[in-house]
Design goal:
The protein is an alpha/beta fold. 36% of the residues lie in helices and 20% in strands. It has 2 domains: 185 residues, Leucine Aminopeptidase, subunit E, domain 1 (3-Layer(aba) Sandwich), CATH 3.40.220.10; 300 residues, 3-Layer(aba) Sandwich (Aminopeptidase), CATH 3.40.630. Strands 7, 8, 9, 10, 11, 14, 15, 16 and 18 form a 9-stranded mixed β-sheet that branches. A 6-stranded mixed β-sheet has the order 1-6-5-2-4-3, sandwiched between helices. Strands 12-13-17 form a 3-stranded mixed β-sheet. Bound molecules: ligand BES, manganese (II) ion and zinc ion.
């Protein structure tokens, strides 16, 4: 799908569906309607708007008379103008794009409302909402059915003739295209079933992304992982016939400050010997969403050519029960020499992340951010609307919070108070991989903290935000691709 910017006056936009955005407050609404009808001439008059009043989520389709460049108009409400936010723009754009699809339009034009401040960001948001709302994971459907039948919007054209918008439009929309494609790559990787994406094929996907986007991917095999002493990665993968991989990504010149991104890459999580119940287990094909977010972020950062040095670490394993599986009570030795007691084989994410976080030290990072679908407890705490955030540096967490609010991939802090540490004390090893019933997201965070080196660190538990049970305004059910927009936005401001 193409996102394009076009400088055009309203009456000249030739398209299958032309979306106009209106605000709910009465005076603004009247002014906007009057202006649009004046620009469209006799083809559209204020009466044609009918009951439409510009409320959020509202849309009205109007057929234009013969002779107009656009076949039909869609009036889309964005709500009160004084409460306008980037998120409302995304949602309004999504309404327009989804309606275009259901009308089987090949192209939709969004005539953007005049933006007076944060112009590029506003345009970017319209583009994101439209693009992301049209994503579907349909590559395995041999017969596209329902609204999807033979119908794909091929182009989203964002139009304006306002000089301030024309000035930044082309570049803002081009950047949005990159970020949206990267988000959809993360969605595709997450949604792909476990028989398609397993450690070796995840590594292959990373290699392909690296090649097309301009960064490098180095893949370590089981022998090399073992030789490095990464007992967590090796241990968790023992039950599977599919060997583990450690995927190492690198972008940018190694001079200057290094940022390391770590992504949990459990390509399928059965729970292992501590097996999960079957209801809902299929969701665990998305237990590599952290890895997908890291690969997507690399793709975006490399294509945008951000001036930073970035390293990515993805421990990739499949967590299966089997004759060779690790069992409860086993003790593993991690990369930094520390040992962990496996109380529950379903708390596998922290076991593999422990190796990756300890290994990150080697890159002398200024900061490390890990993303992981780590705990069901985090979903209980925050649901699907915020990722759990823990870490050792308030400033870094503050910056992520800002990027989260702006992109609406929001994060919310959970405390790593000292008192929680004793919940993961083991009698037989340095640490235990479970912490009992309470504060499960935090005890998981504390486990990770034990393996964090001498660097600033933030852990994002994306269990709730990466895997959606219900569709939202511009994301389908399933993998959301969360993390890509958040991290790309954060890294744009990272110095
Ligand atoms: N991958 C799961 C966490 C998860 C749950 C992600 C639901 C997304 C949705 C993780 O490996 C896991 O199984 N965690 C256990 C930990 C427990 C055994 C201490 C959990 O949350 O129940
Ligand atoms: Mn698990
Ligand atoms: Zn897991």
């Amino acid at each position: 799908m193409r996102l394009t910017f076009r400088r055009s006056s309203l009456s000249r936009i030739k398209t299958d569906l032309l979306a106009l955005f209106l605000h709910q407050d009465e005076r603004t609404f009247k002014k906007e309607i009057a202006e649009y009808s004046k620009k469209l001439g006799a083809r559209f008059s204020p009466v044609d708007a009918g009951d439409f009043s510009g409320k959020e989520g509202e849309a009205a389709l109007v057929y234009l008379q013969k002779g107009s460049a656009a076949r039909r108009l869609l009036l889309v409400g964005v709500g009160e103008s004084r409460n306008a936010t980037l998120e409302k723009y995304r949602r309004a754009a999504a309404v327009a794009a989804k309606r275009a699809r259901s009308l089987k339009a090949k192209q939709v034009a969004l005539y953007l409302p005049p933006l007076s401040s944060h112009v590029a960001e506003g345009m970017f948001a319209f583009a994101e909402g439209a693009y992301l709302s049209l994503y579907r994971f349909d590559k395995y459907l041999t017969k596209k059915s329902g609204a999807n039948a033979n119908s794909k919007v091929e182009e989203i054209v964002l139009c304006s003739d306002k000089p301030r918008m024309v000035k930044v439009g082309a570049s803002a929309i081009q950047q949005a295209q990159v970020v949206c494609e990267a988000t959809c790559l993360a969605r595709d990787l997450s949604n792909a079933p476990g028989n398609e994406i397993y450690p070796e094929t995840l590594a292959e996907a990373a290699r392909q992304s690296a090649e097309r986007s301009g960064y490098t991917a180095t893949v370590l095999d089981e022998r090399e992982i073992k030789d490095l002493g990464m007992g967590g990665i090796v241990g968790v993968s023992l039950g599977s016939s599919r060997p583990p991989r450690l995927i190492i990504l690198e972008y940018g010149p190694s001079s200057g400050k290094t940022m390391v991104l770590v992504g949990k890459g459990v390509t399928f999580d059965t729970g292992g010997i501590s097996i999960k119940p079957s209801a809902g287990m299929a969701e665990m094909k998305m237990d590599m969403a952290g890895a997908a977010a890291v690969i997507g972020t690399f793709e975006a950062v490399a294509r945008l050519k951000l001036p930073i040095h970035l390293v990515g670490l993805i421990p990739a394993v499949e967590n299966m029960p089997g004759g060779n599986s690790i069992r409860p009570g086993d003790i593993l030795r991690h990369f930094d020499g520390k040992t962990s007691e496996v109380d529950n084989t379903d708390a596998e994410g922290r076991l593999i992340l422990a190796d990756a976080l300890a290994y990150a030290e080697k890159f002398k990072p200024a900061a490390v951010i890990d993303l992981a679908t780590l705990t069901g407890a985090c979903v209980v705490a925050l649901g699907h609307h915020a990722s759990g955030m823990m870490g050792n540096d308030e400033n870094l967490m503050g910056r992520l919070k800002k990027a989260g609010d702006k992109t609406y991939e929001r994060v919310w802090p959970l405390p790593l108070y000292d008192e929680y540490e004793k919940l993961i004390k083991s009698d037989v090893a340095d640490v235990k991989n479970t912490g009992g019933r309470w504060a499960g997201a935090i005890t998981a965070g504390w486990f990770l903290k034990k393996f964090v080196g001498n660097y600033k660190w933030v852990h994002l538990d994306i269990a709730g935000t990466a895997i959606l049970e219900e569709p939202s305004d511009y994301a389908q059910r399933g993998g959301s691709g969360v993390g890509v927009r958040l991290l790309t936005e954060f890294l744009k401001g990272w110095k």
